[in-house]
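Entry:
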Amino acid sequence: MDKYRLKHKKVFNVKKKKPIYRSKIFWLLILCLAFFGSAFYFLLFSPYFQIKVINVSGNISVKSADIMPIIENNTKKKIVFFETKNIFLANLKEAKLQILERFPKIEKVAIARNFTGQITAEIKERAAFGEVCGEVCFNFDKEGIAFEQAQDNGTGEIKVNFEVRDYKITLGKQEILLENVAAIAGISGILTDNFNILPKVFILSMDQKKLAAKTSEGWIAYFALDQNINSAISNLDILLKEKISIKDRANLDYIDLRYGNRIFYKKK
């Protein structure tokens, strides 16, 4: 019986396991990790891709020394325990938003990077179109945005006062609607170019639906800004050319152009 069992007993050979370091897959993984680790280090920490120069151009009154720290603060990153100013990781979008928020004087800013470690910021500042006054007077641009406090000597011929004089104007805000800036420019152009009359000051209602133009000759023109303002400006041009002479303007009190083609004017 024992012989029978021995005859049919299976014999198993136990193979010894290879050490993992002798596996081809192990060394392939090590090679891949080394390659990607080196590439990662080279791209993020190599001096070649570190930011070396920040250039600011196009600015006039806003100092480069005030703009550059904002850009630089958005280039610093910390990865694990290591700090880097990598050109790929610089948050230029956030830098742009912070610059526009901090400096209402700046209309546009374009920030770009190149792979030699240089960042360039091209600045476009707002140009003063006139003054807008409430509690304090500020310069405003062609889009009606107040961007800096006006100087005592003024910025030009156009001055807009809100009818509520204690109104507080906000820097960086569009205080005058774009279409109303165009209306003010059109009225000023007609009076100045065609009749050599300087608009002394414009009075704007708080709802921006009414406008009064005080002229250097002493009379006032009234406009409804929620109606066809171009038609009203055209009517003013025709009236001053055909109905009211230069002599008559000396005794003119006002011209009311708020009722379409029905125009009213009064002498003093």
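The two ends are 144 Å apart (CA to CA).
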